[in-house]
Amino acid sequence: MAEFGVAAPSVEVAGDKSATLTGKPLSVVALRKTYGDVVAVDEASMEIAAGEFITFLGASGSGKTTTLMMIAGFCEPDSGTITVGDRDVTRLAPQKRNLGFVFQQYLLFPHMTVHENVAFPLTLRGVPKDEIRRRVGETLEIAGLSGFGGRRPRELSGGQQQRVALCRALVYRPPVILMDEPLGALDKKLRDQLQVEIKSIQQELGLTVIYVTHDQEEALVMSDRIAVMRNGRIEQFDTPRELFERPRTPFVADFLGAANFIEGRVERHTDEHTLVRLDQCGGLLTARRHALAPGTAVKAGIQPGRLRADAPDDGFCTGTVETATYVGTLVRAGVRVDGGDAPLLRLEVPAGRGPVTGERVGISADPDDVNLFPVEQGG
Fold first, then answer.
1. Which of 37, 104, 135, 190 is most buried, with most CB under 10 Å away?
2. How would you label 202-239 residue by residue, b for 16+ Cβ within 10 Å and e otherwise?
3. Per the database record, which ranges form the ABC transporter domain (predicted)?
4. For 254-264, what is the mean pLDDT?
5. Which residues are 87's β-sheet partners?
6. Alpha carbon distances (Å) from 349 to 92, 262, 307
7. What is the mean pLDDT of residues 95-118?
């Protein structure tokens, strides 16, 4: 197990001279892929350091899986480069890139035992049998599967099969593990459990992981950085906290946290804040300082969990609670703001602290939780 616990695992196996990631990034530069008139990926670029857990996050058709497939070698880019360690792999066949891949469908060989499935990549590489036995045993132990080596896939649960698929990708110590929605077929409880286990293994072994998902919570829980993708482009590539707290576009604010958007115009600045006069209710919203000229039309983006329901005479606007739904630890409320017919403001407040349907409330937020977007950005 000690051999696996290094920050940048070597991937030279039985004379295979593959790249190593010793602090060097996996580099993707200006990747582009089209299918006829459809642009699937448009000038995607990023630098990934050894040991990072990176997630491609987006809706169906955003380009996340196509980007992963180009890195894996299953899909050839129209243009751009992919470098792993010190080696350009852009035009290499998948088997020559020496990258680990975990699919959503486990793709285990049903006629093989767990041990044989995990050993398969090493057998192909001509690794001696004693070495195979040692590595498979270590890898199964890491994944909590010691004692399962003699079982067939049909004798395993879905979560156990997914662990076997992960072990098969880990056993030959590739410089990068690619995962295409590997937990998509599992129920929520097992999914949450495996998120923690995969992240724990990744941190223990110092693995570099590129992970694809459409699940925002999964991305936030597991990732060091997230590439939010939209229409083939990377909308923002940042840490989970930065994406949630400081989204650069309305799309990122809405996709990561289902933000409320309130329209208005910048009225003036103070030393620390920007004041926005709201179109609907005429209230004055205080935001953290933004470099926007007075008079600029803006959308103020505020996450539901960062809005507060206060007394009616407090806050930047007032309204009436139209919906209040109990969801365990939270109450999700919808407030109809006075002065117009804009969509309900959505709030998430701790259960037991109100508000209730029909209640009159004032809406407030901390200035640091308010992001302003010029209307020209769209979104």
1. 135
2. beebbbbbbbbbbbbebbbebbbbbbbbbebbbbbbbe
3. 26-256
4. 92
5. 84
6. 52, 19, 8
7. 88
DSSP type of residue 344: P
Amino acid present at 67: T
| Joined tokens for residue 338 | 């006075």
Residue 325, Cα to own-chain centre: how many angstroms? 28
Residue 292: pLDDT band (50, 70, 90) is very high
- Do residues 222 and 294 share a domain? no
Q: Which domain range does residue 300 map to? A: 258-377
Residue 204: what pLDDT?
86
CB-based contacts of 38, cutoff 8 Å, min separation 6: none
Residues 203, 81 share a domain: yes
More confident position, 112 or 379 = 112
**CATH number of the structural domain spanning residue 74:** 3.40.50.300
Distance CA 349, CA 303 (A): 12
Res. 53: pLDDT tops 60: yes
- d(CA 307, CA 163) in angstroms, rounded, equals 40
- pLDDT digits 0-9 by tens, 203-243: 888 899 999 999 999 999 999 999 999 999 999 999 999 99
Number of domains forming the structure of the chain: 2
Are 180 and 103 spatial neighbours (Cβ–Cβ below 8 Å)?
yes
Residue 23 forms part of a structural domain: yes
pLDDT of residue 213: 94
3-class SS shares of the chain: helix, strand, coil, % to 5: 30, 35, 40
Cα–Cα distance for residue pair 41/146, rounded to 1 Å: 41
Q: pLDDT for 9-23, tens place per residue?
A: 333 333 333 334 445
Among 374, 327, 367, residue whose Cα is nearest residue 346: 327
**Is the predicted pLDDT of residue 191 greater than 80, yes or no?**
yes
